[in-house]
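Folded chain entry
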Amino acid sequence: MLTVENLGLQYGKRILFDEVHLKFTQGNCYGVIGANGAGKSTFLKILAGEIDPNRGSVHLDKDRRMAVLKQDHFAYEEEIVLDTVIMGHKQMYDIMVEKNSIYMDPEATEADGLRAAELENAFGDMGGWNAESDAAELLSNLGVKERWHQKQMKELSATDKIKVLLAQALFGAPDLLLLDEPTNDLDARTVAWLSNFLADYKNTVIVVSHDRYFLDMICTHIVDIDFQKIKIYTGNYTFWYESSKLMAAQVANKNKKMEVKRKEMLEFIQRFSANASKSKQATSRKKALEKLKLEEIKPSTRKYPFIHFKPERPPGDQILKVSNLSARDAQGDLLYSKVDFVINRGDKIAILAKNSNAATVFCEQLYTERAEAGQSIEWGQTITKAYMPNDNSAFFEGDQDIDLMNWLRQYSENKDEQFIRGFLGRMLFSGEEVYKQSSVLSGGEKVRCMLAKTMLHHPNFLILDEPTGHLDLESIVALNDALVEYSGNLILVTHDHRMIETVANRIIELTPKGIIDSLMTLDEYLVSERITQQREQLLESV
């Protein structure tokens, strides 16, 4: 359906990819992965026709409709929400506007009437009579309440605007759907709904995402940008990741006989296929793993940082007790209230909130111990806490504008140059990179620096607010593994479903009317009828 022939793109001497030949077929979902800067979003823009490659061509079959998730959240400020969704099907929307303008024209001629009749037929053939109800259903499924459907876009919150633009891309079941980070800022329930929707989608989807749960749920194929090439592999992200790791180990052990390697790979494929068949993953639905050729698997060139949080001492019996916490935003609206809980040894808590700002304010309040009259935050005497804020800009601006060696040295008891250089090396800063000014670091590099700073503190209690922001998949995997192994207590705010599911053993959801506190995993939380009823009561009319 969509073919890419001899595609090449470079900026100056830097080659992103060259001699790319790909074919994307009907009914499959392709997850695009690659290290930061590899060109994932750029590749999607080439497919969408927004960027011209240096060489090659992209061809979409005739009469096929493409939809692209818009990134400009302020592009439709004056438009009605429902109309904004229908605009996703441009031809249908243009017909709707034209025929309505004829009906509204008191001076319309007989010829105008005939034109309106033609438009009505075309509109009906496209499913236009169900357009408003279909758009409304999409919005409701994504969590945009009906009372907002006839409002202007400028009246919506930033999160709801994102959901409207996502509904716009999904509207009308386009033949080809291009999605760049569609799960950003979506809550866990919305991500789960979108995953199920795309897993059952009958047309072609090409998606860039750092969300491993999302990629595993929807992808039949992985599009890997590496070695200045782009290759398609059968399977979802976990299968690609495990296969790449296993192949890398085999390549590293050159004394292994080829037949032994083949046997191990075949056994792995059989185990993975058997596990996948018990889930809703798209890989099992397509039975595509059976067609995999071992010779096609190639170890990745990507590098993984070494992340390990080692508490200086274990926590005592009293860890944290919170009583009657509440907070409001800058406009005076209540973010959360009646927050009461006690943290016990071994608790790793994921914080959920419909309003992401609520979770950020909550983390700040805990760390700074800011409590008003009638509220209390009581930390145990043995607790050494560390906090990674969502916004880390204050650590890299003004007086903090120094090279990386000196930036990290200020947070380390050991000031030795070799120690600092070695620590930065574990976080993938090597050679002359250790002398980069902290102010020019990318978002992902800043987060890796903050992780290094946190490790040097040796805390037995971590407060992490969106730690995966700006990180590539390799760093997210390394952080996930580190948090699973971490022996201290943890409060975690993240949109990464896999991280919450594998790390957290307790869920606390903040609402303006109180909290939901449950000793269960995220997947259990999302399907619990008791939790759903409690949540609906707390969020009613919010």
Summary: Residues 258-276 form the longest helix (19 residues). The radius of gyration is 26 Å.
